[in-house]
Amino acid sequence: MKKFTRIEPTTQQSFGLQYKKVALIKRFQTEDGKLHEFTTFYKQGDHAAAIIALTTDRKVIITYQFRAGPERWMYDIPGGGVEKGEEPQAGALRELKEETGYEPGHIEFLGTNSRDAYSNGVWYYYFVTDAVPVSEGRSLDEEEQDQGAEVRFISIAEFLEHAKHDRMTDPAAVLMAYDRLKEIERGSK
Predict the structure, then answer these.
(1) Are residues 158 and 180 in the same domain?
(2) Are residues 105 and 133 in the same domain?
(3) Among residues of the chain, what percentage have pLDDT more than 70?
(4) Which of 13, 52, 169, 185 has a CA between 20 and 30 Å from the CA of residue 30?
């Protein structure tokens, strides 16, 4: 196994309009003297958080919105970037309330995920049960409103099928929650 030692300089490039993203070009050297260059995304130390949320009647709360990468509408669990100084759980709860108009009855931490091999950020995932609507409803940002993001309520079986068949983002979160979801699903029959 080769040992990779990071060398400088690291190049940073910002791109995008509303949601500025960052590409970092990282360089590494292996003990055989070879240089390796990788383009990675998001700033080092960026955090995001998302929630798999179930209502009191065991429906999964998801959003349905257009995703530019695959160029189609997809299902998403509520989530997004954690703001500076915000704890990941607080960010996840904020996103749940903003995107769906719901708040949790009970919350548990599922784990973290790096998303992919070229992402510098870390995603924190949570599992919520007994989510209930808040009186003030959703508070989408302008872009989410303009793009027509919808809230939908689906069964656990549908949720798992969407994750298995590339109809949703964050399948790693679904895998983290799989045993718990199946346990709840069995209890609801």
Answers:
(1) yes
(2) yes
(3) 97
(4) 13
Q: Residue 95 burial (CB < 10 Å; 0-12/13-18/19+)?
A: buried
For residue 31, the enclosing domain spans: 4-41
Looking at the structure, tell me whether residues 31 and 94 fall in a common domain: no
Closest CA to 60 of 98, 123, 102: 102
**Are residue 76 and residue 98 in the same domain, yes or no?**
yes
Residues 131 and 73 in one domain: yes
Q: Are 54 and 16 members of one domain? A: no
Task: Give the mean pLDDT of 64-89.
Answer: 93
pLDDT digits (tens, 9 = 90+) for 92-120: 999 999 999 999 999 999 999 998 889 89
Buried/exposed code over 17-33 (b: 16+ C-beta within 10 A; e: otherwise): eeeeebbbebbeeeeee
Give the sign of the dihedral formed by CA 176, CA 177, CA 180, CA 182. negative
64 and 74 in contact (C-beta within 8 Å)?
Answer: yes
The model's pLDDT over 27-47, given as tens digits with 9 standing for 90+, comes to 999 999 999 999 998 888 889
Per-residue pLDDT reduced to its tens digit, 136-161: 888 887 777 788 889 999 999 999 99
110 within 8 A of 79, measured Cβ to Cβ: no
